[in-house]
Each structure stands twice: as structure tokens, then as C-alpha cells.
């Protein structure tokens, strides 16, 4: 009997990393592409670090000034902050916050219906909006992102360890790796490849944790 060569896939967009970033990117890409494939070396449904996280969310609420929040964040991250990137993230953060609320993820509010938050390092605008039960927000967000990916027909595969991206000149056109349980090689052809493997493991501002994200 002929031994199988490995697993082969073809897709319009290959997203490497099925954490919150990868899932958001895959979902959005499905608005424009017929086929989107997300692979992760972990179990298919673990949701990256987000699934382990508290899920507290930093949000630029409509009544906040972007620069005020940005100043707080630069201080919070000990100056190690890409301000242009952060501005773009914060500008979109309220829409993402509302996406979660519209999907049924309820951030905690007081009796008057006002959002509750946890101020960080006594800063005025650096606030964490949180979920009840506290600490379970990440699991719920991961569940919702997986659900939304499924609804949009995003293909997700777990236990695929990518070892290299294939290039054709300057263009990425696929990736290779192996299946973590069987050891079988995996070959993926793609019109585009997006790396969502994370650059930072945990918050550098916590000092004791290394910022050694696996994506590096
Ligand atoms: C305990 C904890 C609590 C946290 N609490 C909060 C919080 O309350 N609020 C908040 O905003 N943030 C919090 N964070 C941080 C937040 O969870 C992360 O910043 C965020 O989830 C990162 O998402 P990501 O998609 O960029 O990366 P990740 O979730 O790290 O996803 C990257 C994915 O890529 C995969 N991958 C990496 N290399 C490969 C490879 N070679 N082949 C295939 N797959 C690969 C990994 O398995 C992983 O699933 C917390 C983190 C932790 C650990």
C-alpha cells in the first residue's frame, strides 16, 4: 500500500495562529474571500492565550479623548508602545466592544446601567471593562469568536505546527509544517498568508514575565 505523503490544503488565505487576532482576521477576511483557513499548533478550540485570559478589555469609549487614553497606555507599558498602531487599535476598540455585546457578551454595569471598570495604576483613562463572573471573560470571548468563525464558514485546524512559510519571490504563497499528533507533514498552498502567532507572551509591564511570544 502506498504511504500517504501528508496532508495537503489549498486556500485563498492561510491564517497562522488561531488566537483572538487570527480569528478576528479570518472572520473579516471571509467578507472578501471564498475560503479562509486558520491553523494552530494547539488544540483546535483552545483559542490561544485569549481563552486563558481574564478577557478584561481596554476600550476607547466614545466620550474619551484618544490622546488622553494613549498617554495613559504609553505610561502603562513603560514607554514600550507603538503609538501609531495603538491609536489604530484604540480607534476601533469601541466597535469591537460593541461586536462582543451584540453577540451576547455582557460587560458589567451598575444599577444605573453605567459600565463598571477597574482603573489601572490609578490612571484616569486606562480602565479595564470586565465580565461577570470575573475572570471568565476570555473563555466567553473565545467561545463567541469560534462561533462567529463557524457561522462564516472559516475553516479551522488544530495541532498543525507551521515550521516555514513558502515564498515565491517576495510573495508568501503557502506554508509547511507537521501534524503535532501523527507527525505527518502538512503542506498548504495559499494566495496569501497572515501571521497571527503573537509577538508578546504576556504583559511586559508586569516585569516578571518575559515578552517571549512564540511568534518571534
Ligand atoms: C493569564 C492571562 C490573562 C490575560 N488577561 C488579559 C485581559 O484580561 N485582558 C487583555 O486584554 N489581555 C489579557 N491577556 C493577554 C491576551 O490574552 C493576549 O494578548 C491575546 O489573547 C493575544 O492574542 P493573539 O491572537 O495575538 O495571540 P495568541 O493568543 O498567543 O495566539 C497565537 C496563536 O498562534 C499559535 N502559534 C504560534 N506559533 C505557531 C506555529 N509555529 N504554528 C502554528 N500555530 C502557532 C499559538 O498556539 C497561539 O494559539 C492575558 C493573557 C494571559 C496569558
Bound molecules: flavin-adenine dinucleotide
CATH architecture of the largest domain: 3-Layer(bba) Sandwich
> What is the CA–CA distance across the termini?
41 Å
What's the name of the CATH homologous superfamily of the largest domain?
Answer: FAD/NAD(P)-binding domain
- According to DSSP, the number of beta strands is 8
Strand order of the largest sheet: 5-2-1-8-7-6
Structural class: alpha/beta
Low-pLDDT residue spans? none
Estimated share of beta-strand residues: 15-25%
Average per-residue pLDDT, rounded, comes to 91
Structural commentary:
This protein is α/β, with parallel strands linked by helices. The chain has 2 domains: 1-51 and 139-216, FAD/NAD(P)-binding domain; 56-134, no CATH class. Helices cover 26% and strands 24% of the residues. It contains 4 helices and 8 strands. The strands form 2 sheets. It has a 6-stranded mixed beta sheet. Strand 6 (160-168) and strand 7 form a beta hairpin. Helix 1 (20-29) packs parallel to helix 4 (137-151). The longest helix has 20 residues, at 83-102. The termini are far apart. 25% of the residues are buried. The model has no long low-confidence stretch (mean pLDDT 91). The protein binds flavin-adenine dinucleotide (FAD). Flavin-adenine dinucleotide is lined by residues 16-22, 39-42, 48-50, 52-57, 160-162, 196-198, 202, 214-215.
Amino acid at each position: 500500500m502506498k504511504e500517504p505523503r501528508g496532508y495537503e490544503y489549498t486556500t485563498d488565505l492561510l491564517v497562522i495562529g488561531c488566537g483572538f487576532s487570527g480569528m478576528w482576521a479570518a472572520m473579516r477576511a471571509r467578507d472578501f474571500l471564498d475560503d479562509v483557513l486558520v491553523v494552530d499548533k494547539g488544540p483546535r478550540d483552545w483559542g490561544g492565550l485569549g481563552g486563558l485570559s481574564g478577557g478584561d478589555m481596554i476600550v476607547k469609549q466614545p466620550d474619551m479623548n484618544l490622546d488622553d487614553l494613549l498617554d495613559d497606555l504609553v505610561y502603562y507599558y513603560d514607554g514600550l508602545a507603538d503609538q501609531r498602531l495603538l491609536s489604530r487599535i484604540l480607534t476601533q476598540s469601541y466597535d469591537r466592544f460593541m461586536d462582543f455585546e451584540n453577540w451576547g457578551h455582557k460587560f458589567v454595569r451598575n444599577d444605573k446601567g453605567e459600565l463598571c471598570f477597574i482603573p489601572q495604576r490609578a490612571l484616569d483613562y486606562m480602565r479595564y471593562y470586565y465580565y461577570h463572573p470575573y475572570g471568565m471573560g476570555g473563555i466567553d470571548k473565545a467561545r463567541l469568536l469560534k462561533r462567529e468563525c463557524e457561522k462564516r464558514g472559516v475553516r479551522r485546524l488544530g495541532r498543525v505546527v507551521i515550521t516555514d512559510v513558502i515564498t515565491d519571490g517576495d510573495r508568501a504563497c503557502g506554508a509547511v509544517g507537521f501534524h503535532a499528533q501523527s507527525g505527518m507533514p502538512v503542506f498548504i498552498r495559499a494566495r496569501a498568508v497572515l501571521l497571527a502567532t503573537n509577538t508578546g507572551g504576556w504583559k511586559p509591564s508586569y516585569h516578571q514575565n518575559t515578552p517571549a511570544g512564540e511568534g518571534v
